[in-house]
Amino acid sequence: MKKELLTIYLKGICMGIADIIPGVSGGTIALITGIYDRLITGISNINIKFIPHILKKEYGEAKKHIDKIDFKLFIPLVLGIGTSFMIMSNLIHYLLENYVAITYSFFFGLILASALILFKEVKKLSIKIIPIFIVGFLFAFSVVGSEYIQLGHSLPILFASGALAICAMILPGISGAFILLFLNQYSYIISLINGLQITELLVFGAGGIAGLFSFSRFLSYILHNHRSATMLFLTGLMLGALRFPYQNIVENINTANPLFLGISLICGFLIVMIMEGGFNKNKI
């Protein structure tokens, strides 16, 4: 039991690292590490009806809903993600400020490898679903080519950003951090984490919880009923999203040695592939 909890905690750390990097999805890491289906099923099984039962002191009824929550997964996983956020926020901010091209080369390798792993999840490839891949690719390619949306940092904006980001975080192929970057919230959220701005973080987190519960059931449905098409769509999204790190590499290429760019890209690619091979031996 302790070994399983520790393993989930370590997987949570990996997810947290991915979630804080613009370009890599924590959902992809969950898929690679073998806990994705359990995570989505666990989230969709959470029923907040236990809250009114507790308020009415109907503890027996509340317990029926609470017993369905996969605490053995969620507690160590959330602790691992939180650990990563606290440790990695300063480092990522520093790297993006001082080593832009090398950092985005690393991201490019991570995304490319993740796309290949997602494609392996497509069990029934047919001509009928090829257009789904094209739609995903063109959508991501066009979105990441747009200028960032210049939004403020009001509490309603933080709530909405949290809802959108969490949907991306649990969806393989879409980076929640990238969504925040696109919404002009990424650096601000990193500063909130570094400064432990509790009020703003609670609002952001509340948006995340709202988005998580509203989106997880839909995601669970399409994965169970249209898994191959969904994975192919997400593969297209990831490959289309490569435009984002590529643009940042090109714009800052004069600041880095091309050899280091190549090494960084290869390292990113190999890390994901090694993780996929290692974790697949011990799926939970």
TrEMBL record:
Regions that span the bilayer: 73-95, 101-119, 131-151, 157-181, 201-223, 229-246, 258-279
Tree of life domain: Archaea
Coiled-coil boundaries: none
Keywords: Membrane, Transmembrane, Transmembrane helix
Keyword Membrane appears in the UniProt entry: yes
Plastid recorded as keyword: no
Protein name: DUF368 domain-containing protein
Protein's organism: Methanococcus aeolicus (strain ATCC BAA-1280 / DSM 17508 / OCM 812 / Nankai-3)
